[in-house]
From TrEMBL:
InterPro entries: RNA_pol_sigma-70-like (IPR039425), RNA_pol_sigma-70_dom (IPR014284), RNA_pol_sigma70_r2 (IPR007627), RNA_pol_sigma_r2 (IPR013325), RNA_pol_sigma_r3/r4-like (IPR013324), WH-like_DNA-bd_sf (IPR036388). GO terms for biological process: DNA-templated transcription initiation. Belongs to the sigma-70 factor family. ECF subfamily. Keywords: Sigma factor, Transcription, Transcription regulation. This is RNA polymerase ECF-subfamily sigma factor. It comes from the Bacteria. The keyword Transcription applies. Residues 29-94 form the RNA polymerase sigma-70 region domain. Pfam families: Sigma70_r2. One of its GO terms (molecular function) is sigma factor activity. The keyword Transcription regulation applies. PANTHER family: RNA POLYMERASE ECF-TYPE SIGMA FACTO, RNA POLYMERASE SIGMA FACTOR SIGZ. It comes from Streptomyces azureus. NCBIfam families: sigma70-ECF.
Length: 193
């Protein structure tokens, strides 16, 4: 196995600990990923209680099926995010379909558009959370503080060329939110399905 194909050590060890049924491993995993899971679920569903439910479902699934994660397919973080995304989208489709049937207003096309928008927004959030701090800092200044690349360079103490590079790379990463099956997943990664 090539060096870059080796999954991170923490991911492999965590999977092994979960497979042995170590409750402490689940607690450690929860501490590390609960805010990610809840945030993604909330972004898709727009409902605190539903996001809490998805968070529970994700960690129950991980506890009951630790072997479903294949470290060779990508990081554990990506697998957990993919699982969260899948479960949240399923819940959104189910609740929106039920509301559509109950109320009779709207179409299936409108439902799918709402699901698609929520899904893309969740992927974009995941990408921003996962990107290196220097890229995220540049994007946050440009977007939230309405700073141009020159002001961003000054704020961060970097050259203007470096500020432009960070902004360009950050935006390129964000543009993939429309393309991925799941948040941050490598092409073809189906680890949480």
């Amino acid at each position: 196995m090539a060096k870059k194909d080796v999954p991170p050590r923490w991911d492999r060890k965590m999977q092994q600990r979960l497979a042995r049924g170590e409750a402490a491993a689940l607690g450690e995993l929860y501490d590390r990923f609960a805010s990610l899971v809840h945030g993604l679920a909330h972004r898709v569903l727009g409902d605190e209680r539903a996001a809490d439910g998805i968070t529970r479902e994700v960690f129950v699934h991980v506890w009951e099926h630790p072997d479903a994660y294949d470290p060779r397919q990508g990081p554990l973080r990506t697998w957990v995010a993919t699982l969260t995304h899948r479960l949240a989208v399923q819940r959104l489709r189910a609740t929106e379909t039920a509301a559509l049937a109950r109320e009779g207003s709207g179409t299936l096309e409108e439902l799918e558009n709402r699901v698609r928008r929520a899904s893309v927004a969740a992927r974009a959030d995941y990408i921003v959370q996962s990107m290196p701090v220097p890229l995220r800092s540049a994007l946050e200044r440009a977007y939230f503080q309405r700073r141009d690349y020159r002001q961003t360079a000054t704020d961060l103490g970097i050259t203007e060329d470096e500020a432009r590079r960070r902004l360009r790379l950050g935006l390129q990463l964000l543009s993939t939110a429309h393309d991925s099956e799941a948040p941050g997943a490598p092409p073809g990664y189906r680890g949480a399905v």
